[in-house]
Design a protein that fits this description.
The structure is a homotetramer. By secondary structure, chain A is α/β, with parallel strands linked by helices. The first copy, chain A, is 33% helix and 23% strand. Chain A has a 9-stranded mixed sheet, sandwiched between helices. In chain A, strands 3-2-6-7 form a 4-stranded mixed sheet. Chains A, B, C, D: It catalyses: 5-dehydro-2-deoxy-D-gluconate + ATP = 6-phospho-5-dehydro-2-deoxy-D-gluconate + ADP + H(+).
Chain lengths: 336, 336, 336, 336
């Protein structure tokens, strides 16, 4: 059992709003990017990755966002379309904005970093008027991502989308996805994250992301329980706090905390772990699985992604996740 | 009786956050500004005027805001101080911002306009970190004004102030005070006004201001009742919708609407009517008067202000308002 | 004799480009602005003042500039027109820019300061395309002022105007008029001032202004002679370096330096001294007077302006200047 | 013979200022970029390419510019260093600027385009104070490139560099390299290009680039001769106007025009043709060759670059150019 009741009778299982960008992944890895000569292009951006993940898991999906009027933007739209994601809500910028980029550097499986290009990014130009109410009205679960709150007018588009989601009874999930470089200050970030989180049913983030949100508050011991309790006073039904290698804890309004088993992986890089986890977890919740099972499914999906070169392109299908779990259970997969 | 219970045991009756500026009122009136040669300087800005009004009515008051580091800024701070307003929450800008200006043009008592200087205005530079929680914690009634939502970082300062006011149980009043020139679009305005209004106990605005807030909604007949009902689903206890000469209507969650008698005035100009009305009305509510009596007191205060040359400087004391009402009742004052 | 040959057969004696703003002069003087309650409105801006000065001296004048689409902008246009200045080259901004303001503070005749409003000022929005070649082609003397170089697109408008002036053989005068607040850095300022000064026949500035221009150079003793010599390698025929109370020195390419007698004045404030000096001096040069006589005429014009409350409005006629000189000579005027 | 006398007794043959960026060249070519999956990273930017070209031709070279404080910036500095270019004048940005990018799309040898990332580019953050006078003082030939004029503070850095070059007697070359996307308007561009070109000895550009510079002028027939003549009134000794496939024409102050033979090439893409031409031509001029021979050498260098995948990395050595010319003369190379 889980505390979320998914609305029935809606045509779209899952819709998301926010960042659509290009990952340029180093082909020559385990070295500094200075020594990388070639890069491979993938669709990226946390909400894009999660939506692709949901589509791979068989969900009916849609996206609300904005792309640049260039080759990169058209590549993104094509890729979403090919993955069966409804792109009616994806508008094209006409102001000369560019596609956000993320060059990945993989010095070692545990030492990864990203070089971001976020100036004048098209996804941050989405306006409130461009948000299609009908798409959000038709979605059972609607996901927002923190990066889309970083700048106007995308920030206002997210708040308007939240109004629609609340009005039409969607389950709202918030993937915190805090990226400091597009924000003016942690204080600014905390204020908008807190405003948005009040309306959300499911909140997923790292301990550090929740710390940022508590910048104006008192939680000196950084207690997960205090963090979660705050949101149960608003709309939250599940709060997941991720602690990296130590695993994640899910809290529920009944006071319970939930942990799932984790799986071994032959790690290539850490990028995409959170996105595939979110997709797997939300898939489980939407199937009516209990929280622990949903978390385990998310963990296995994450293991698959971090074992491969890309993020979006590596998002697994249900049989792939099930197979991975079985192979782990049989001891066929061991950690790097 | 009125639906507001004022918290007891707090040292400050009334605090406000937002715009502090300079009014430059034409001395030669009833002509276009092109033909005006001299101007007189007053403190201005809607929340400043209301706070000055509350101070004149004998309330213990405080202000949270930001002034320029120049002669105009120091004049404002001195004037607030001389009126008994606690300015511990008024910080001084250090970035070279200027004091916002409002040149008034009075072509006739009914044809007034304002020439605004709002670029690089110090009041819009107030940051969330600069908002003093202790001042808001100590206030029985806390007022926000829409202009302070127009730009970052003042926008975030207001949301953080609202967090503090909610946390400490202040009665929150929202004077909509919509001034298009500092906003990017009506859509942007609607989004932040709606976010802020959810947390407010008392909302005061014109029909046109509420129309702006309903930009993404369905209220084609511009029904005051539908407008008010929306906010009773959130925190509101009183919603006042102003219809200019046709007077104001106050709505309450019990479904009732309230109108007050109006008073005649020898009108010099219309500026300041809303601010003095708000001060008088909130004063009445804080005395535990019923809504109609509070509205009448506000109306009389407004009449005094529009009969004189300034706004802030003309804010009346309680005996002045009482005297005005008595003179009206005796027929000693007739309209222009 | 003077080294400037004024072109004949041109319909306009004097045209200028640049700042058009409003001075708001304190009516209650000899006190800090905090204690000033009323202000009187005048047209201001150095090139505007000089052009008004030239018009009062009987010259045929024109102005190239930009005004805000508001009451202040219309007041400026009307005032220029009433003073006989051709305003065909004065365009109206349509972007919502405002009229630059200068509030004057007169603490004492020798302690004067200005509070400037230059954000989003209309005069700095003049574009190169809006500069009327025909007006500059028709002018005998064309004056630029440093403040117009402070920001784009006004900066480019000045360079384009200089191209036209050079092409059509106007005598080009440069009033340095350096106001730090509209510039990013002294280095940026130095670069554009030096670019512009190469093309100018007459350069007028204070020692401090020339110091700023020499930021990347070697003139450690701040020698006026070295300063002037640099410009004689380019187009300059007269370089005037002003040393405040110690008077001004004019240099010419023949190696000579020129000083004029100064006159006493009952000083109200120091504002406007430079503008009236420039008008008087250029008037003399245009009459074919020698440099000393032109400087003396400029000094007397300056004395008249600093003895009165306004700048633009106090610009004298030829009989007024002549009368002032005669009264000084008769000992009827003594210093404050 | 050629009209340029190269200064002797200077330690650096060739220095340039301006753009340093990264080219990301499509590996899968002859298709739209949407279908390109991998990219190879090279150093790019017109002045960088020309300097690399000069270094390959055996010249002692130096660069004045700014790189981002990231992996891309360090890659650029390393690459210049490995090519023997003195990077003492290359400073590192500390404001969070990024490295400019150029994704190349090669649909066919004659249908090539570039997707540029120029927002917040480090090279445009170079300030006038950061320009090392000693490096420019030590250079025989100093090259500026138009893109560096596109924005402040790089624009001012170029003008200051020109001051130094003029002061120390360097031969100044101007590669127009007009890229509209970083400029506000063609009018703005024309003004700064014209200001800079007045001080240059050698000006190289396409007919379209010279058209842009003549935006405020009269050259309705787009006459190359009129274009060139204008600059001979200033500092120019050679003006080269490029007409794409129809070849280039060089003009000299004596009224002569010069054309060189062209060579066939197996074209992969057109990028880099201008940069390698400029390097080859300037190399010839510096050897004291006549203009036609220098042009021919430049053409052959260009053929080598357009026959290969990269720009900077394909810049040829002297033996490679000589070998290419011989093979053309023997008929061993024919056009695509």
């Amino acid at each position: 059992m889980n505390p979320i009741t998914i609305p029935a009778d809606k045509p779209i299982d899952f819709a998301a709003i926010g960042r659509l960008c290009i990952d340029l992944n180093a082909n020559e890895i385990n070295r500094p990017m200075e020594e990388t000569m070639t890069f491979t292009k993938y669709v990226g951006g946390s909400p894009a990755n999660i939506t692709i993940g949901m589509a791979r898991l068989g969900m009916k999906t849609a996206f609300v966002g904005k792309i640049a009027d260039d080759q990169m933007g058209r590549f993104i739209a094509n890729y979403l379309h090919k993955n069966g994601i409804d792109t009616a809500g994806v508008v094209t910028d006409r102001t000369g904005a560019v596609t956000g980029l993320a060059f990945t550097e993989i010095k070692s499986p545990t030492d990864c970093s990203i070089l971001m290009y976020r100036d004048n990014a098209a996804d941050l130009k989405l306006t409130a008027e461009e948000v299609r109410e009908d798409i959000i009205a038709g979605a059972k679960v609607f996901l927002i991502s923190g990066t889309a709150l970083a700048q106007s007018p995308s920030r206002e588009a997210v708040f308007q989308a939240l109004q629609y989601a609340r009005k039409h009874g969607a389950i709202i999930a918030f993937d915190l996805d805090y990226r400091p470089y597009t924000w003016i200050s942690p204080e600014e970030t905390a204020i908008y994250y807190n405003l948005a989180a009040e309306w959300c049913d499911i909140i997923l983030g790292t301990r550090e992301e929740f710390d940022m949100m508590e910048r104006f508050e008192q939680n000196p011991e950084r207690s997960d329980r205090i963090t979660a309790a705050k949101w149960f006073n608003h709309s939250a039904k599940i709060v997941i706090i991720k602690h990296g290698k130590e695993g994640s804890i899910a809290y529920t309004p009944d006071g319970a905390s939930h942990r799932a088993e984790s799986y071994p992986a032959k790690v290539v890089k850490t990028f995409g772990a959170g996105d595939s986890y979110a997709a797997g977890f939300l898939y489980g919740i939407m199937q009516g699985w209990d929280i622990e099972s949903s978390m385990a499914f998310g963990s296995a999906a994450a293991c698959i992604v971090i074992s491969s070169h890309s993020c979006s392109d590596a998002m697994p299908t249900v049989p792939q996740v099930e197979d991975y779990i079985r192979r782990c259970e049989r001891g066929e997969i061991t950690a790097t």
